[in-house]
Design goal:
This protein has about 375 residues and is α+β, with helices and mostly antiparallel strands. It has helices at about 1-15, 45-50, 65-70, 70-80, 170-190, 190-200, 220-245, 250-270, 280-300, 305-335, 340-370, and strands spanning about 25-35, 35-45, 80-85, 90, 95-105, 105-115, 125-130, 140-145, 150-155, 160-165, 205-210, 210-215. It folds into 2 domains: about 25-170, no CATH class; about 185-370, no CATH class. β3 and β4 form a beta hairpin. α5 packs across α10 (about 305-335) and α8 (about 250-270) packs antiparallel against α9 (about 280-300).
């Protein structure tokens, strides 16, 4: 009973933690020099509109006039959710300018600001809580420049604070930082997790006499899991590399919509049983698309070319590490429950149906830029 409860909690956590809408990202750039800290914060207008109702006339368009009238409100809202401490001393933030820029997924407010920090700080602590009360999936992508040093971080609901040492950072330290970001990205990337779970749920079952039955040995289940995970890893590593090195690029909305579609197809395959012996092929085919999604985190950080290879290796290894942890938790529980009605009906059928419905809403929202 404890094993059933634990497995049910695992599935429910994956589904309940997901709020289905287009991923929300903001891009924060901080530059540290002798005169203090200067920043630029690109925030999606659609997200600011949801928080502050910028579209005054309700016509579905945010004009420059509507935006200009709310500059003070935007600055107050955003800067109240960002804190900087240099060597433990708070750095008051002041807005210095407003612009509008176009990203691949729409228009962004460009908020420029200055921070009154001590000159030449040794450490910088960043606290990021933008949209924390509205969107638990929102991520803030930080690029920090201090002389020849460039550091990056991804902030979110589970990782709102980061401390940076501004001198003496080694290549090994930077590699470990990117590795950690890879782990955090896969663990907070609910669409990637649900795609993987959709392919792993049937791994401990086989079809016999027109119904699902538990596999005979753990080795049989392990081989099936190994094929799926290996195919997914090879595929997304390939496109992650191509995209991060800017050899191949795809529009953000296309990638995110295709990722949602991949989750729908993988989960539906469990319900209709059209991919029993081809799950590894589905993992490889859609893993190519997921790789572009992983790469977006690195490319959006605007890393200098000298750091891209290091970032790529560390981030990709972090993604694989996070993925293996998920598999290590999933496989023993699934194997232990494989022969039960609960697993065959509630976990496989019910879980796949729930995943397909959630991903279907994602697909609508991402393809048509909606918020349901």
């Amino acid at each position: 009973m404890r094993r059933r409860t634990a497995f049910a909690a695992l599935l429910l956590l994956a589904a309940a933690a997901v709020e289905a809408h287009k991923p929300s990202d903001a891009y924060l750039a901080l530059s540290v020099d002798g005169s203090g800290v200067h920043g630029q914060w690109d925030i999606a207008l659609r997200d600011l509109d949801f928080a502050l109702a910028l579209d005054a006339d309700g016509d579905g368009r945010i004009t420059w006039g509507e935006l200009r009238a709310r500059h003070a409100d935007i600055a107050a809202y955003a800067l109240a959710r960002l804190t900087l401490h240099a060597d433990g001393t708070p750095c008051p933030l002041t807005a210095t300018g407003h612009l509008v820029d176009a990203h691949s997924d729409g228009r962004y407010e460009v908020l420029r600001f200055a921070a009154a920090c001590p000159a030449h700080p040794g450490t910088l602590e960043v606290g990021y809580r933008l949209f924390a009360d509205l969107d638990p999936q929102h991520k803030g992508l930080l690029r920090l420049s201090a002389g020849a040093l460039t550091r990056t971080a991804v902030f979110g609901a589970t990782h709102p604070d980061e401390r940076f040492v501004l001198a003496g950072t080694s290549r090994a330290g930077e590699f470990l930082a990117y590795l950690r970001e890879g782990v955090l990205h896969i663990w907070s990337g609910y669409d990637h997790i649900l795609f993987l779970l959709s392919l792993l749920l049937p791994a401990v079952l086989v079809r016999g006499a027109g119904r699902w039955q538990g596999v005979a040995t753990l080795r049989q289940a392990f081989v099936e899991v190994l094929k799926v995970v290996t195919a997914f890893t090879l595929a997304h590593s390939l496109t992650l590399s191509l995209a991060a090195l800017q050899i191949v690029t795809l529009p953000s909305r296309l990638v995110e919509s295709a990722i949602a579609a991949s989750v729908v197809i993988a989960a539906t395959g469990n319900l209709l049983n059209f991919a029993e012996r081809r799950r590894w092929a589905i993992a490889f085919a859609f893993g190519l698309i997921h790789g572009f999604g992983f790469a977006a985190v690195l490319t959006d950080l605007g890393l200098p070319r000298t750091l891209l290879v290091l970032a790529l290796l560390g981030f990709n290894l972090g993604v694989e590490t996070g993925q293996l942890v998920i598999v290590a938790v999933f496989l023993p529980l699934a194997f232990a429950l494989r022969g039960t009605w609960f697993y065959r009906r509630a976990a496989l059928v019910g879980g796949s149906l729930a995943i397909a419905l959630v991903a279907g809403v994602w697909l609508l929202e991402r393809a048509f830029d909606l918020r349901l």
